[in-house]
Amino acid sequence: MANLTLQRNEQFAILAIVAAISFAISLTDWVQRGMLLSANIALSSILAVVLLYWLPMMISYLLIIRFKIGNWPLQYIGFYGLMVMGCLCWGALRSEMLNTHAFSLFEALTIALPWSSGIFVVIKFYLSQKLLKQEKQLRQLAEIKLLHSQLNPHFMFNSLNTIAAFVPKHSEAAQSLVHNLAAVLRYSLTHSVTSGKIPSKVSVADELIALNQWCEIEQSRFWKMQ
Asked: In angstroms, rounded to a whole number, what is the distance separating the alpha carbons of residues 224 and 160?
């Protein structure tokens, strides 16, 4: 978790999922008790999401990123401690709004344990899968770079030799080959690996145009050899 960061949309998605689960459990609990939904009950459910889940998750995540905490037991202990504190705060506010008892420290520890464990394991699993995906992308980038480094010099040498052979007697054909070579190189540079990112998707029409120009260069090269 210290080496990987969650994108903003991923953070919102995780918070939304946790909130939905918490609301569902909280409201189901009140229905089973036979209590009618009221403003205080709704507010208590919202406070549970904010104090028990959202704030501990966001604070622990920011602390892990800020101080680069790579030791997962320390990550979990910090997250668990924040959830316990959030549970105590929520219990105190809940007792005032709904006239129920506040949570003791033991109750807060018991409530926070399964939730903190479940959330922590799920997020760790998600980040591990994200890391595997990034490593796969890096391998693909390395393969693409290697392929470019191997093909580009040979293609350039062969194309320039072909153009040089065409210049004395076939100047118009040589000019056409120069234009095709420039277009192919421009297309290759535009869609090559840059800034550590996989090239963006291109349309089939652009691919066919570039392929046709490449084929014209290769065709002229073989025609020269005859």
From this structure: 12
55 close to 22: Cβ distance less than 8 angstroms: no
Q: What is the pLDDT of residues 11-69, one digit of tens each?
A: 999 999 999 998 888 777 777 777 677 888 889 889 999 999 999 999 999 999 989 88
Sign of the torsion angle spanned by Cα atoms 85, 88, 91, 93: negative
CA-nearest of 105, 187, 176, 93 to 148 is: 187
Torsion-angle region of 69 (φ positive above 0: left; ψ -120 to 50: alpha; else: beta) = beta
Are 88 and 108 in contact, with CB atoms under 8 Å apart? Answer: yes
Contact 95, 102 (CB under 8 A): yes
Q: Quick one: which of 109, 116, 114 has its CA closest to 73?
A: 116
Q: How far apart are CA 49 and CA 45, in angstroms?
A: 6
The two structure tokens encoding residue 90: 């929520």
Per DSSP, the three-state class of 191 is: coil
Provide the terminal-to-terminal Cα distance of the chain, rounded to the nearest Å: 62
- Is residue 148 within 8 A of residue 187, CB to CB? The reply is no
